[in-house]
Amino acid sequence: MDATKLRRAVARTRLAPIAGFPKRLARVARHDATVLATSARWLLTSREHHNYTYDLTRLSRQHLAWFVSVSCDAPVRQVRDWFAELEGDDRLRGHIEAATAAASRRGLADRHVRYARRVGWYAIVRARRPAHVVETGVDKGLGSCVLAAALLRNAAEGHPGRLTSLDINPEAGYLARATPWADVVDLVIGDSVASITALDRPVDLFLHDSDHSRVHEKREFEEVEAKLAPNAMLLTDNVTATNVLAEHAERTGRRFLAYRETPARHWYPGDGIGVAW
Ligand SMILES: C[S@@+](CC[C@H](N)C(=O)[O-])C[C@H]1O[C@@H](n2cnc3c(N)ncnc32)[C@H](O)[C@@H]1O
């Protein structure tokens, strides 16, 4: 009997689980070894303790390009060009590296710039050309810089816009305090729901990325509703954890899509972008 016939014969007997065990063990050990190696490299080379930064896998980038293309009705080629535009912005990259190195909390930040799903935020701003973007949750200000860079490009093409960035932490946003990015950013310190209530200009693009509890995310979307411009777009950075934006979209008669990112060479499983429009 040849090996294949023998395997098939054993598979039909009570010995099958024992015979299959070495192969199953090898598979899970290979997987766990990769996770352990990635985790060990991260522990030794990164300083980040939250809001991790990483690159996306090639496949994840491709899916993100199509996600933006469909939700913004923009050609996917153009979306890829916008990704490249952000990643080729050496002035922005140089500023983020230098500001990170000079920051008082540099011991908890990586100098190397990796935008992950924020390239999607950038492309959405380039596609929609909003006059007013609101981002809740700023942390160091990496997302604010990315959104501001897109607004500056839009302005150079005749479509100016401003970003209102909301955070409860007075130390937030140190990356977004330099010219030219700061020229289009209004940083507001306080609880995001109260700050949304106080907004005095219509919002064309809203991004939730603050307190990721279900209750807070829901309150932000409910509160911003009265402030939205016609055809505004809503984004959430919390889509891998809650269904809040999908439920809000259904209640308010919008469409909804979710993208889940895959980080390259990182133990973190990644976040995502939810969009309602
Ligand atoms: C995930 S980080 C934001 C990341 C940022 N958007 C980026 O692109 O890197 C979450 C931020 O939300 C802020 N935050 C938490 N609760 C908040 C609240 N109730 N109002 C406003 N900001 C809040 C935190 O201080 C923290 O800086």
TrEMBL record:
A GO BP entry is: methylation
Q: Do the record's keywords include Transport?
A: no
- Please give the Pfam families that the UniProt record associates with this protein: Methyltransf_24 (PF13578)
Q: Which Gene3D superfamilies match?
A: Vaccinia Virus protein VP39
Its protein name is: Class I SAM-dependent methyltransferase
Task: Tell me the domain of life.
Answer: Bacteria
| Keywords for this protein | Methyltransferase, Transferase
Q: Which organism is it from?
A: Micromonospora solifontis
What lineage does the source organism belong to?
A: Bacteria, Bacillati, Actinomycetota, Actinomycetes, Micromonosporales
Q: What's one GO MF term for it?
A: methyltransferase activity
Listed InterPro entries: SAM-dependent_MTases_sf (IPR029063)
